[in-house]
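Archive transcription. Copying these from loose printouts into the bound notebook so they stop getting lost. Printout 1 of 2:
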Amino acid sequence: MSARYWVAKYISDVFRDEPRNVGVFVQVGDVISARFLGETDPGIVDRRKLKSVSYPDVYHQWVTYWRKQISKLSIESVVGANTTSYRVVEGGTVTETGDDSPEQITSYLYALLVEGGFSEAVAQEEETETERPVDLEIEIVTELKTLRILAEGDDLFLPRHPIRRNIIIPGQHYNAHKPALVQENGICYVMEVIDLTSSKKKNSRDRAGWVASMFRDIKLAQDTAQTIGLVRVTEQDRENEYVKNGLSLLSAEASIVNWLETLERQEFLRQRQIIAEAF
């Protein structure tokens, strides 16, 4: 089944007319789903997440209005209520939705269009849900150091193609992605860390969506790029709807390595070592 979607845009400087995306609407059959910048739950806006919005109260009123209209299944009235600072435009159609629910499609499009680094404003905002899980990254980095395939300082005894940190990788829409780990040997391997065992499951879902959108942007710019999601997730975590959604978003754009699974972890490290030492 296909899904139509629309994008809500905010224009802070009307003279320059440089909109940023602040929300998405998705219609599948008779069901309309939506998600907006700053929402913690439908219609509940955390003003601390609205750093780039000049008048948060006005923005909140628009979110309230948009949600009221879609509750009436009236997307036409939403599109017709544009002003100089707020507008809703048709985005297009998503055809390959599989068995995804309207909410899952909405989360995916929100991650791509609002949170995903497609806008300089999004990249600068540094919201908490996109913060990298430090403990898991330290654990992974420690393993790579032990194998002596992680580039650090002026180490003269590295293999030909070591793994590097803090490397800027350009995407098609945003030219300064900085993933957790990068390895290059003719193919660019891009790796990011997502801890889905966090108690803040919604934040974990949002981070997974953000990582998926970064991966997609990089692959649009480099069609040979290989993307890898390094996750920590238990079977109990997988029962959580937010985690399911996050994994679904991530799996669409990357191969997944669960760091808690010994065989997956060992195979990942083996492959990284083979590539590091290849001629």
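Printout 2 of 2:
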Amino acid sequence: MLLYAAALTIASDVISDNIDETGNQVLLLAAVDRRRWFLFGGVCVFKAIILLKRRDGISSEEFAAWWLGRHRPLAMQLPGLRRMVVNLCRDPEAVYDGASELWFDSEADFVAAYATEIGKEVAADSLSMVSRRDRLIVDEHVFHAQPAGAAG
């Protein structure tokens, strides 16, 4: 039996093709709209990627310890934050030392979160440790590869 968990069907893409615990194939569909990901149940999600370059005089190790140990717990308090991912660059000579991915229900929620006292604290904490901070507002497209040899 084929089961569908679908949202709006503007331009649907299969983003997950799984077999559930009862042996039914479940296709999870999502539709892409500008700056928003329509997920299962019609939840609208906004994503920002924030690229950071550490200040001169701060080692990669010190920067990683700050980002994961002090900044991340602070940022996790942003009102309306749905998900946060920190990506640390392996190359200390790269243009950026990493990128954080932040998900909110909407762009308005993202802007409102940074307008709060905790949001201002998060921004100030970040600016105290970086020489460069760039924000990318993205349209996310997720594709899952089939394992080698899997029937598709």
